[in-house]
Design brief:
The complex is a heterodimer of chains A (about 240) and B (about 290). Chain A is mostly helical. Chain A is built from nine helices and six strands. A three-stranded antiparallel sheet of chain A has the order 5-1-6. In chain A, strands 2-3-4 form a three-stranded antiparallel sheet. In chain A, a hairpin with a 6-residue loop joins strand 3 (about 180-185) and strand 4 (about 190-195). In chain A, helix 2 (about 35-55) crosses helix 4 (about 65-80) and helix 3 crosses helix 4 (about 65-80). With about 290 residues, chain B is of the alpha/beta class. Chain B has a single domain (about 10-290), classed as Divalent-metal-dependent TIM barrel enzymes (TIM Barrel, Alpha-Beta Barrel), CATH 3.20.20. Chain B contains ten helices and twelve strands. In chain B, the strands form three sheets. An eight-stranded parallel barrel of chain B has the order 1-2-3-4-7-8-9-12. A two-stranded antiparallel ribbon of chain B has the order 5-6. A two-stranded antiparallel sheet of chain B has the order 10-11. In chain B, helix 8 runs parallel beside helix 9 (about 260-280). The longest helix of chain B has 21 residues, at about 260-280. The radius of gyration of chain B is 18 Å and the shape is globular. The two termini of chain B are about 15 Å apart. Mean pLDDT of chain B is about 95; it is low at about 285-293. Classes of the chains: A mainly alpha (about 240), B alpha/beta (about 290). Chains A and B meet through helix 1 and helix 2 of A and helix 2, strand 5, strand 6 and helix 4 of B.
Chain lengths: ~240, ~290
């Protein structure tokens, strides 16, 4: 490897790890300034990624407070750095990280709330497809899940928690002993967050597991119509389109 | 190779929160610039908004993750994503940075610096050749803002950029805020830097805001934050550059703590007024720049 590759290796190793020593010998700045100058890059890298996560997980941040969130996100950034220059899905691994993050163990629902927020981002960026209208369900030969539809099933009341922590919401008492399933849809350009009944969630889970579209059978028509009204379904015989 | 083709005038970095303002007030804008990496989702509002605005405005696609300044080979998957974005939006221009942002498997989401040597020059030129070949168009390369000075550098930054232009035929994106930030941070003269900058190759100018900080020994340090209005010394340098080179497509960049539209548009109007004033004062300036190599 060339010396230039060496420069990059030592810079890269130190810039994403607050515990690593500054590669001070790389620089000709005044020796007393090198650590602080290098820290600008370290701060840009780490704070920039924490800021991006804070923008994607506002409810998680509200539940734990800014200081806790940023400390938790910092551990995620250092332990699970991005692998792609496309950052819109960088938070996809944060819910699992939170679920296994011991300092957050006192809020056992936190990982599932994060999963809901990560699913909102996926729904937002999902492919455009015309949502199947309830009136068209009967005529559709087969049924598929709309590309933006995302199901999150939790043993905790994550829909109630998420709703109660929107900007401007007033505090409410929420009993934790209630499982809830949430369906995210984006039939047009706005992401919607629906609370599902168990039977509805079973159907969505069924559709998620299929690698082929389901036939629109008569016994499921009423449920399909309800889910279609939420924007969760599409006609698999129609292709993607750019809105 | 299609040349970079931004319309003359002043544009802005497009932010989703300004979509309705732009659509309803129809501001005078020469172009909109968007980060390429934000356009790599499959669908949704990002594409819906930009698709609508692309009917009315020219688009500049600005990459932040292509890693041109790294020794490792270019990420071909990412390059093809960029090609797809440029084709989908019929981009008038594609630009990237003299910087690196990935190493091994990791992406750092920041524009990191490199020493200027014969070896890094060769590497950057190879990467730019590959980008221009893959995109079938001339790309623009942006000068960086830096906080450290590499022991190993053997070539001045302006000479380094000039040699890249000569060897690859790329154009340059002159970020005047970056010039000012780096000159303060390295205690050098921004005017001396600009006097040796290959102005003939500049196809776009960036104007952004910075944040004033200091090292603990009191040495001033400017942070290229893109979170404020363009500072007065940067406006002055801009006036000097435009007086010397003639009008250049100019972008107002504001990426963090994004203000309401009226605040951002005030900087657009200021740049438009300044360019108009200089065009009146030095009518020959525009003509001279059409004779570059």
């Amino acid at each position: 490897m060339t010396r230039e590759a060496d420069f990059q290796s030592s810079f890269a190793a130190a810039v994403a790890d607050p515990g690593a020593a500054t590669p001070a010998r790389l620089f000709r700045d005044l020796p007393g300034q090198r650590d602080e100058r290098f820290s600008v890059y370290r701060n840009n890298v780490i704070s920039g990624l924490i800021d991006a996560l804070a923008g994607s997980f506002p409810v998680v941040q509200r539940l734990v407070g800014v200081a806790f969130f940023r400390a938790m996100a910092r551990e995620y950034v250092v332990g699970c750095p991005p692998r792609s220059p496309v950052l819109m899905h960088y938070g996809d691994r944060l819910p699992a990280f939170i679920a296994g993050f011991p300092p957050a163990a006192g809020l056992p629902y936190l990982g599932d709330v994060a999963a809901l927020e990560a699913a909102r981002i996926r729904a937002y960026h999902a492919a455009d497809r015309r949502a199947l209208a309830p009136a068209d369900v009967d005529a559709a030969g087969s049924i598929a899940l709309h590309p933006a539809a995302q199901l999150i099933r939790s043993p905790f009341p994550i829909h109630s928690i998420w709703t109660a922590n929107q900007p401007g919401s007033q505090p409410v008492a929420i009993s934790l002993g209630r499982a809830q399933s949430v369906l995210l849809t984006r039939p047009e350009m706005t992401v919607h967050c629906h609370l599902l009944e168990d039977a509805q969630a079973d159907i969505i889970a069924d559709l998620t597991r299929q690698d082929r579209p389901l036939l629109a059978t008569a016994d499921r028509m009423p449920a399909y119509r309800t889910l279609a009204a939420m924007g969760a379904l599409c006609d698999p015989t129609e292709g993607d389109h750019h809105a | 190779m299609t040349p970079s083709d931004l319309p003359a005038g002043v544009g802005v970095g497009f932010k989703s929160r300004h979509f309705a303002d732009i659509l309803t007030t129809r501001p005078t804008l020469a172009f909109l610039e968007v980060h390429a990496e934000n356009l790599m989702g499959a669908g949704g509002p990002v594409h819906a908004q930009l698709g609508r605005l692309a009917q009315d405005y020219a688009l500049s696609i600005h990459g932040v993750g292509l890693n041109i300044g790294a020794p490792q080979p270019l990420d071909r998957t990412h390059l093809s994503r960029i090609r797809h974005v440029c084709e989908r939006y019929q981009a008038a221009s594609f630009s990237e940075h003299l910087a690196w942002s990935s190493h091994g498997e990791n992406y750092f989401a920041d524009l990191l610096p490199l020493p200027y040597t014969q070896a890094t020059l060769d590497g950057v030129c190879d990467h730019i050749d590959a980008v221009q070949e893959a995109l079938g168009r001339q790309m623009l390369l942006e000068n960086p803002s830096t906080y450290v000075d590499f022991e190993g550098s053997t070539i001045e930054e302006t000479a380094f950029l000039g040699e890249i232009v000569r060897r690859t035929g790329c154009g340059l994106l002159l970020d005047i805020n970056n010039v000012f930030v780096s000159s303060v941070n390295h205690d050098r003269s921004a005017r001396d830097y600009l006097a040796t900058f290959p102005l003939h190759a500049v196809r776009e100018i960036h104007l952004g805001g910075h944040h004033e900080d200091a090292l603990s020994d009191g040495t001033p340090l400017l942070i290229d934050s893109h979170s404020a209005a363009v500072a007065d010394p940067v406006w002055q340098l801009y006036a000097d550059v435009v007086a010397a080179s003639g009008p250049v497509p100019t972008l107002i960049e504001w990426d963090n703590d994004v203000p309401e539209w009226a605040v951002l548009y005030a900087d657009v109007r200021r740049a438009q007024a300044l360019a108009a004033r200089i065009a009146v004062m030095s009518p020959n300036a525009a003509r001279e720049t059409t004779h570059d190599a």
